[in-house]
Structure formats: structure tokens, C-alpha cells
Amino acid sequence: MEILANVLVGLVAALHVYILVMEMFLWEKKPGRGLHGFDPEMARATAPLAANQGLYNGFLAAGLVWGLIAGDPTGFRVQVFFLVCVVIAGVYGGLTANRRILFAQALPGAVALAAVLLAH
Hints:
mainly alpha, about 0% strand
């Protein structure tokens, strides 16, 4: 179960690296605009906000990687903390910005969190 938990945490970390890249570097390009259906003008106007969000997603990814490489009990605690942050951010984003965020961010975080808790 611990291997499955680690794989799921790694996948959630990779998801947040992907979000970082999309929001910080590709927001004004076709892949980034396609996420939200923005035209170039709207993408340009919201790029600083998206970059800020991307940076926060990078911090979530970094924390999850830290949790994977740190020995227990620190690694376990760090994973739980950052996965709870992922779930809370996903629920908030799903309620305030786009319901898809519940499935794209909160659900994977919750599944990984459950696996981590069951593995320990």
C-alpha cells in the first residue's frame, strides 16, 4: 500500500508541476488559453494572476516531493499537510472558479491522501 500511496503522491505532484507550467509559461499561448477558452486579450489581461496561481501550485508540488523524499515521521506529516492543502485549494477553486477543479485537483488529492493515511 505504501508504494501505491507514493505513486499517487508523485502523480499529484506531477499534476501541480503541469499546472505551474500551464499557468506561468503557457497561459498566453494556445495550450494555456485552451484551458479556459480565453481569447488572446483575456489571456494577456489575466496572465499576472495566472502566474501567481502557478507559483502556488509549484509550492504544492515541491512540498509533495519533499514529503516523498523525507524520512518518516517527517515525510508522512509533510505529505498529509500538502495533500490537505491540495484538497482545500481544489474544493475552494471548484466552488468559486470552475467546478472542474473539484475533479481535476481535489479528487486526486483526496485519493492520494486516503492512500497515504491507509499506508501508515
